[in-house]
User: What shape does this take?
Amino acid sequence: MATRVIPPRILKKIRYNTTTKTLNSPRLPSLSPAAAAAVVPPSLIEKPPSSASVAPPSSSVNLEDAEKLFSSVPTSKLLRSSAVLHATAVGPMVDLGMWVMKSKLVQREGMSKDLVTATIRKTFYEHFCAGEDAAAAGRSIRSLNETGLRGMLAYGVEDAHDNDGCDRNFNAFIHTVDVCRSLPPSSMSFVIVKITAICPMALLERVSDLLRWQQKDPSLVLQWKQDSLPIFSESSPLYHTQKRPEPLTIEEESDLQLANQRLLELCQRCVQANIPLLVDAEHTWVQPAIDYFTYSSAIMHNKDDNPIVFGTIQTYLKDAKERLLLTTKAADKMGVPLGFKLVRGAYMSAETKLAESLGYASPIHNTIQDTHNCYNDCSSFMLEKIANGPGSVVLATHNVESGKLAAAKAHELGIGKVNHKLEFAQLYGMSEALSFSLSNAGFQVSKYMPFGPVEMVMPYLLRRAEENRGLLAASGFDRQLMRKELGRRLKAAIF
Assistant: This one.
């Protein structure tokens, strides 16, 4: 979830749910209250020796046994991983790396570009990304699955600005689904799609403007609008749209129909493959259109007890919980099971700058604790909901306390023992110890795994570099764990 320039104008059942596929999940124990986080990057994980085996779920969660956590990681890759995480924790080093990745050194063909690209590929890229194409990503997923974790495969493309670009991206998404069909059923949890990759950005901005204005003035009729669910709440910011937008032109309506057709075909392919499609959230200035696409598709494809189309709620937004409640209530009335991925969010700087430029308060919670509270409240709400009815939730978090709270709540509600409608998730290359501790406790856990050529996923790498030194950074304890295991191996080799 890349920093973009603010736009000039404003700046029955089982068959739809891969989480019900065969998985050895015993009775869920509660998580240890003494649990702490550590990171073992999944990009380091290779096929373990034949004598190794995935440890059976345990009634206790141990996040401090470095030898056990890193047992499947070769020393050479553990060294590289430790170096990458330490580098991304040093502010000046991150600033230098970001400058290089944005500079002409990687824009102009020549020796400098080749050298920089090769360096990035062997460090940050291999740490945070699953491979340069879908086939390579599939191999990474197979290796990851041998450790008991699953993959959420994301083609790492960013915005598209015309139909040709959208068509290319659409074909890549279709290919991703086809590759996933060849993988072991238990290894895949989701295929990720960005609506900004299959619908031109300018059109998403126009559709979002019209949806916001209709919220302000319900008398506005949008002839092209399909059945959907509530997109806004009373507290949702509408400042992006300063004046009444012009209706879509005939050409824009045609492009919208093309975008709808791409998403429809992608959903149908996912239904055939029995792999849910998860729609990523993005900036607030295009999120209304993204939610519109998502909910329209959910109404069409989510049947019986389980969803095939999942949306994303960014809980660092002040209106997140209110929108979640409104949307799920409306879906319940329509008999549509919903799936959501809950995240904190990844566009804080851009959102705050946009709001300030227009003279409005930031849509982001005022404090990090408010964001934590919102995430935990939304998580608790969704867990109670899926425990008592249809639907599913993906709890994407690197925050140990949020993971512990959700695991304890799920254990209390008995989620996972019958329907497996809960998935935890972390980014590939981050929070590995949290991933393994939750998996060992009996929960299904996935890694968000972007793939694609180095140049294409550069914006994703830039966000990871920024994020890893910020609020979601690996703690000093995480890096200490790696140093501890490297020290143990060195000592064992000497003595």
Observations:
- Residues 1-60 have pLDDT under 50 and may be disordered.
- The beta strands are 150-155, 188-193, 277-279, 309-314, 339-343, 392-396, 422-427, 444-451.
